[in-house]
Design brief:
Helix content: over 70%
Number of strands: 0
Shape: elongated
Largest sheet: none
Order of helices and strands: HHHH
Strand content: under 5%
């Protein structure tokens, strides 16, 4: 089977859009609920590092679908990590014994 030279880029771009867009509802949900106790900080932190490394890989091989998708996914994962840390701190402060509010 002989594929046109643009076919792998198109296929990669479609995959990139799908996997990147999959994180948008999670960011929106965490932001709207103002809580992220069901989110694993470790998992999302490692995932964010992985997408950052994929971005660097994309730069090294000059692949715009990899660069763009992983840059956006990294930003979304980082937002989730930051919201998780922020909301967890707020919960700890709210639950601190002896604190007068």
């Amino acid at each position: 089977m002989d594929l046109a030279p643009w076919w792998p880029t198109l296929l990669g771009s479609v995959a990139a859009v799908c996997t990147t867009a999959a994180f948008i509802p999670q960011v929106v949900r965490v932001y709207r609920l103002r809580r992220a106790d069901e989110i694993s900080l470790g998992t999302f932190s490692v995932f964010a590092v992985g997408t950052f490394v994929w971005t660097i890989f994309g730069v090294l091989i000059d692949s715009w679908p990899i660069i763009l998708a992983n840059s956006i996914t990294f930003a979304l994962a980082l937002v989730i990590v930051l919201l998780k840390v922020s909301y967890d701190r707020g919960l700890r402060r709210a639950a601190a014994p002896g604190e007068i509010r």
